[in-house]
Every structure is written in C-alpha cells, then in structure tokens.
Amino acid sequence: MLPLRQALRRPLTLVALAAIPVVVLAVFFVLPVVGMVGRGFRPEGHWDVAGVIEVLERPRVHRVLWFTVWSSTVATAITLLLGLPAAYVLHRLALPLRRVVRAALLVPFVLPTVVVGVAFRQLLTGPLDWLPIDGTPIAIIAGLVFFNVAVVIRAVGAAWESLDARPAEAAAALGAGPWTVFRTVTLPALRPAIVGAASVVFLFCATSFGVVLTLGGLRYASVETEIYLLTTDLLDLQGAAALSLLQLAVVVVLLAVGARLRPAREASAQRAPTRPRRPRLSDAPQLAVTTVLLAFVAAPLAALLVGSLRVTTSGGERWSLANYRALSSTGSHQALIEPATTALDLSLRIAVDATLFALVLGLLVALSVTRRTHSRAERRLRGVLDAFFMLPLGVSAVTLGFGFLITLDRPPVDLRDSPWLVPIAQALVALPLVVRTLVPALGGIDDRQRQAAASLGAGPLRRMLVVDVPVLWRPLLASAGFAFAVSLGEFGATSFLARDENATLPVVIFRLIGHPGPMNYGMALAASCVLAATTAVVMLVVERLRVPSLGVL
Amino acid sequence: MRSMRALATAASITALVLTASACSVSTKDDNSSGSPSSAPSNQGTATAPKIRDVVLVTHDSWNLPKKLVAQWEQQTGYHLVVRSSGDAGQLTNKLVLTQGSPDGDVSFGVDNTFATRALKADVFAPYTPASVPAGVSQYDVAGDDGSHLTPIDHSAVCVNVDTTWFAAHKIPAPQTLDDLTKPAYKNLFVTAGASTSSPGMAFLLATIAKYGDGWQNYWQKLMANGAEITDGWDQAYDVEFTQGGGHGKRPIVLSYDSDPAFTVQKDGSTTTKALLDTCFSQVEYAGVLTGAKNVPGAEAFLDWLLSPQVQAKLPDAMYVYPVVSGTALPADWAKYAVQPTKPLTVSPAEIDANREKWLQQWSDVTSR
Predict the structure, then answer these.
(1) Which of A119, A197, A537, B132 has the largest count of CB atoms under 10 Å?
(2) How confident is the model at residue A100 (pLDDT cuts 50, 70, 90)?
(3) DSSP per residue, A174-191
C-alpha cells in the first residue's frame, strides 16, 4: 500500500497545484477560443475543414505570415541587442537614478498604442522628417522595440541581479578576460531568463496590432491585423479561424524551440544580491548602448509631454496646464460620459485585482512546473503545462473577446457580464510574464537546500519561508510590477469587454483621441502622461519596497 | 502528509489574497449600482413583475447626457445599462455572433453599411414605434421599411479642407472628388483606410457611388497624386491634418459634414469647410434584439430615442443630425455645419453583397 501511495503522491500534488490555474485557463481561454475557432470550422452548422484549409492556400495569407515572422524576428533580435547591455547597466552598476530610470523604462509598456502611434508619427513627420522611414517596416520594428525593450531589461535584469557572482570572479581570477567570462560563465547562467524574455517579446511582436497599422500606414498586414479585419469587418469566420490556428501553430513551434534552448537545470541563484559596483572604463560600450536606448525611448515620451502642455488659443500656441485640469471634466463637446479621473480610479482598482490574480496563478504555475521531477513522463507533463500557460500571449484579442461573448453566456459559466471578466482577462495577458519571471528564479533554487532544511527539522511552511521566499521575493515583486503595468495599459481585450460604467483609462484615451475638438486631443495626451506617470510611480514604489525586506525574511 | 499541509497553507493564502482583492472591483460596483436606485414606482400595482434593467448594446461613440438618461429613468422606472465597445462593424458582428442569446435587450448603432448583414442574420425582432415622427421613414432601410430597424440619426462623411491654409497659399480650395487627383493638390489629401475605419469605408463607398466600375481607376489616380492613408480617423485628423491637434501638413482630410462647427474660432469664423459634392450619407439605426429579456423596456427605450428631447441632444452628444424633421439644431451647427443636399449613396444590400470584394480590390490598389 505504502509504495503505491508514495508513487501516486507526487503526480497528485502536481495535479493539485496546477488544478486552479488550469481550470481558470480552460474556462477563460480554451473555451472561448475553441468556441470562436469552432464557428469558423462549422459555418453552416456542419463541419467544413476543407474551407479552412483553402484559406491557408491563399497567396495573401502566405504574404501576411511571412511579414509577421520576419518583422517579429528582427524586432526581437534588436530588442535583445539593446536590452541586454541596458539590463546589465541598470541592474549591476551603481549609477545615480538607476531606480528612476528602471521605472521609467516600463512606461512605454503601458501606453496605449493609439497614443504612442500618434507620438511616434509626430516625431517621424516632424523633427525626424529627414529619416525616410514613416510608413515603412523600419518604423514598425522601431515601434515594436520601443514597446518591448522593458521586458528584456526587467526579466533579464532581475535574474542578473540575483546571479551568484563568485563563478565569474573565480573565472576572472583564473585569467579569463571579461568577454570570456561573459561568454562562458554569465551568459549560460542567464540563458533561461534570456530565452524566456525573448519568447515573450516575440509573442508580443507577432500579436501586436496597433503598431503595425499606425506606423505601417496600412501597407503591411500581420496575422493579427488580418484576423481583426476578417472578424470585426468582414465576418469571415472561416478565414479568421484558419489564421488563428496558424497563429497558434507559430506559437507552439516557438515554445518548442524555446524549451530546447533552455538548459535542463537552471543556474543556481544566490540569496543576497550582488552589490552593484561602480562603473569602470570597460563598461563604456554597455553604457553607450544604454544611453542610445534611453534617448530612443525618451523621444516619443518627450513629444507626448510637450504636446500635453501646449494649448491652442486665438493668439496662437502657448504653454498651459489646461489639458490636465480638464481631466476632471468630460471633455469638449462631452466626448466622455465619466471624467478621466474616474477612469483612472477604476483602472487602478482593476490593476490591483488583475495583479493579484496573475501573481496567485503565476506562483501556482511556477511552483508546479519547477518541482523536482523524478520520471520522464512527469517532466514532459511539466513542459506541456509550462507551454500551455504561454498560449494566451499568442492568441488574438479579437478571437478571445468575441469568444467570451459566445461561450460564456449560459450557466454554469454565465460570466460575460461579470465585473471580474476584465481583471481576469488582463491577468491572463500578464500571466506568461509572471511565469517567465518566476520560473527561472524558482528553478535556480538548489533542492538540496530544502532537503537540508528538512533534515534540520523544518516543516514545509518553514522550508518555504527560509529557502524559497528569500529567492523568490525580488522576482515576485518584479513580476507584480509587470502585471500591474500590463493591466494598466491593456487595451485589446479590455476594449472588447469594457462597459460605459467602467471604461478604463486607455479606453478613455482612445475615445478622446477619436473625437474632434481641440481640447480632446490635448486631454488625450495629458491622460497618457498621467497613465505614464502613474505607472512610473507604482514601479518606483515596488522597487523601494524590495530593498529593506531583503534578508529580513 | 507534509505536502498536504503545504497545500492547505497555499490554499488558505490564495483564499486570503482573493478576499483582499475582492475589495477593489466589487466596492466600485456597489457604489455604481447603488446610486441610481431612486426609481419611483409610478407604475402603480403592476400585474407582471417588471424587469427594471434595460440593457443597451452599442458602439463606443454612444453618448447621451447623464441628466437626460436619468430623467427617462425617473419617468419610466427603468434603469439603463449601457454596454458599448468597438465601432459599427464590430457591434454588428457581435450581434450576429450572439444571435438568439443577445448580450442585451436593445441595440443602437448598426448603420446603413452593415444593416443588411444584421437583418439577414435575424438579429432584430419586429418592432415599429407606436408613433413615427415626420421625416424618419425617409431613412428606412429599403426592404425593411422600418419594421425591424428604426432610423435614429444621420450624418455625412465628406472631404474637408482647411480654408485658412488655402487662403494663405493663395490656391483655390478643391471642390470635387475629381479635383483631388489634380496636380495642384498633390500630397495634400489624407484619409482613413477603408479596411480599418468606418469613415474610411464611407469614403470608398462615395467613390464607388460616384464612379461606378471606374472607382479603382480613380483610386489609382488618387494614390499617384500622393494621397496618404492612415488606419483611423484620429491619425488622419489629429496627426496629418493642418487644423488637427497635432498641426500636421495636409490641408485636405476626410471627416464629417459637421466638422466646421468644431473649428469655430473666438472671432466667430470657422477654419474648415466640408466639400458637399464628396459626401456619403450614413444612417444609424436602433432595434429590439431577438431574444431580449426585457422587451417592453427595450421598446420604451426605442420610442424615447425618437422623442424631441433626445433628438435635440444628438448633435452635441454624438456629432450627428437628428432624423426627426423640424428638430432645432445647436447654434454653431445651424450657423457653420452645412448638410449636403444630394449625398452619394450605395444601397445596404449592394454593400453587403460586395463589401469583401471591394475591400480586397481597394487593398490591391492602395498597397504599394
């Protein structure tokens, strides 16, 4: 009896740990997507698989797929090239204001694409007019890098910070040059974090919607924009289903490649973070790249800020805070039903919920996929689970949004009018980021530490407190910041679900920018700046929080 | 056993966190649903239990003054719940997809370019308001004749010009669609794309109405003359247009016939003008949804949309003209917004039959 129980216990615990996230994902992701894709496969109530396959043979679909793959690949590569040096500079070097800079770098991540599109285009048609890139793939790729570079800096930076410095020091002491140390010691140790960040960035690029349309001037179509057109305008569900499957296929291939690149064992993490050191002359290249990156990120933001502080009066343009004061009104010609301040309040509330959901789910997922594996089957199951939770990133918000409407409409899941739908949808978008940040950290804990604690008489809770929590604390805060930012800025899924009574700030900005009246445009810019500042402040608080708590627990 | 204990702890922590989070969104909800509970019971002793909530499914341009809605709620004892998202196309497709299990009782915002799709899918239940005011039926969808869809407002999508720019450059402003292809107006025109924006689609339809089978030829000339295409109205107006918030470089933009009323200066002049020979007429409809839970409420709401109070507020609230004849317009509108007398039109049935083909051809002509 006992051996059987022993044998069953491990898989059972795994199932129990993973059960909640799996059920949540099944109801709020698999069910809607399957419902929506199913409609495409059964247009008249009977199966028509041939019709879907026919769509995949259209030359336009091939063009669209090719554009999506190459533009996302290039954008991901550039994001990594710029992000890695910046992650190093901002997390390992003792520079003044690095916390502020780190927080500020997350800002692009939350800005609605509508606004960034406007800011970017004002730069490209204004001060940067001499650069002939407006409406080209270069502009699209620049936009993608702008949005995603924070993912690399944050995810890799957190791993870099908690990396044990001693192996590198040992290598250096044995005569290895800085480049050799980086290549043979640091890079392999960071590989899980880098691969994780890269796959997330790729998924974000491949499913980005606003950037492609706004900066490409409608000349380029990606799989995502094509699904949007087919679903919301043409109601060609068959075509949309085919493309959704294509999207899923690309994601699955990508995840498989990512899993291959990740080492079987994660590098061991260190509990006390390495103290950041003073910059040396040898850090100059990294510092230079970081400076370029900061300028690149700051330019559109500055354009936004300047725009929000200008008002047009009869005597011409002048500086004023009028746009900000107007945020407590409903806009010129009543563009809004509730003032923007109400929307900010609601956005924050939703972000708190979404962050908590994402953290709880992410923690459960991370715990279940990093538990020590005994059998090959168990390891494979973990791999599948790990990939499963990345899927929401790879599916179009349109498919998911319409899927909610047609599948969550009857008991037992009559949820489409629930106020929880928005935070849950946002949590699903943030979940992969949380998981990808937590898994490398958790995986880096040497299980012998837990065994040692157990042999000294520590119970499971105490083991968790003394072994897991100290290592997990920082990545957890980092991912909380991520989730919060994602929730604050999420527009795609939210715009499908948002009601008038609860329009979030990005939805309000979108509404303001789409209404004529001089004040509305200025208010949209001002509201974007408020959104940006709110994010930056929240990030700063998160960064502050984590320092004194370290080592106390 | 140990792992079970760990699990129990984890579960209780989860529960704790979930309760903590419940404070945020649910508190908000209590507040919002608590406030409009001042519904008087002027219905006397009703026989059947009356459903209080009337759920409106609409697009994100829906907007009526709060006070006006509150008045209606007071008078009727109903409570209006608004679910708005997306544009007219998204709204129509949402209604078609949820046919039979609608996410509300009544819908506003399906326009003449999507009306046939909605009617074919049997989205709307038969209902004609008890009294249809004068002028409304001229906007009916041909074939439906007001039996399912009731016209509520209309507007026209027109090419607009920045009159100050043309005065300063001493060039006569263009007048017609043909003018836009002339060398004098090279690189001056910006429009939203037909595939991503409903005004953009309306402009495509205007050219189809005007040139018939020759429309692709017209678009080729338009593109050769340096027309710029953006994804949405906001990009065209806010970024590219000289009178937009971003002070762009193009003085000709695709927008609405009411726009001149929004560019009025302090001295009482307006800086833009709509070209009335380039306009495509848009009509927005409302209807009771098939499978609605609160049919009487939906019908009462629909009647109210045609009432003088609502019709008079439409211009300010949603930038559209009322359909009821004789409704007074706001002062700025009466003075500056000029309506086209003969807007270009394409029948809803024809649009529905050709939309995909036209968009495909349009994409081929406009992508370089």
Answers:
(1) A197
(2) confident
(3) TT--HHHHIIIIIHHHHH
* Surface of A (461-490) touching B: CB under 8 A: 461, 464
Q: Which residues contact A81 (CB under 8 A, 6 or more apart)?
A: A289
| pLDDT confidence of residue B167 | 94
Interface check A67 vs B, CB under 8 A: no
Q: Which tokens sit at A387? A: 């990939």
Q: Is residue B364 within 8 angstroms of chain A, CB to CB?
A: no
When pLDDT is cut at 50, 70 and 90, the band that residue A122 belongs to is: confident
What integer pLDDT is reported at residue A3 of this predicted model? 61
The DSSP line for B333-344 is: HHHH----SS-B
| Diameter over CA atoms, chain B | 88
Using DSSP, state whether A148 is helix, strand or coil. Answer: helix
Select from B87, B196, B316 the Cβ nearest to the Cβ of A218.
B196
Distance of CA A300 to the CA centre of its chain: 20
Chain A residue whose CA is closest to B265: A314
Residues B296 and A540: their CA atoms lie apart, in Å, by 53
- Residue A418 forms contact with B (CB below 8 Å): no
Closest CA to B191 of B145, B140, B157: B157
Residue A370 CB partners (closer than 8 Å, separation 6+) = A266, A439, A442, A443
Nearest-by-Cβ selection for B82 from A352, A500, A513:
A500
Q: Rounded distance, CA A456 to CA A451, Å?
A: 9
| Nearest CA-CA distance, residue B174 and chain A, Å | 22
Chain B contact for A333 (CB, 8 A cutoff): yes
Are A259 and A390 contacting, i.e. CB atoms less than 8 angstroms apart?
Answer: no
List chain B residues with CB under 8 Å of A357. 21
**pLDDT digit string (tens) for B201-243?**
999 999 999 999 999 999 999 999 999 888 888 888 888 899 8
Contact list, B60 vs chain A (CB under 8 Å): 495, 507, 510-511
Q: Is B57 helix (H, G, I), strand (E, B) or coil?
A: strand
Task: Kindly state the percentage of chain A with pLDDT values over 90.
Answer: 12
Structure tokens given for B32: 């919002």
Nearest alpha-carbon partner for A246 in A429, A69, A432 = A69
Q: How confident is the model over B183-206, as pLDDT tens digits?
A: 999 999 999 988 888 889 999 999
Q: What is the pLDDT of residue B148?
A: 95
Q: Which residues of chain A are within 8 Å of residue B233 when distances are taken between CB atoms?
A: 514
- Do B238 and A13 make contact, defined as CB atoms within 8 angstroms? no
Q: How far is B140 from chain A (nearest CA, A)?
A: 23
ipTM of this predicted complex? 0.79
B12 touches chain A (CB under 8 A): no
Residues 235 through 254 of chain A touching chain B, CB cutoff 8 Å: 235-236
pLDDT digits (tens, 9 = 90+) for B291-302: 999 999 999 999
Q: What pTM does this model have?
A: 0.81
CA distance B207 to B278: 8
Q: All domains of chain A, ordered by start, with CATH? A: 8-57+314-553 (1.10.3720.10), 78-220+284-308 (1.10.3720.10)
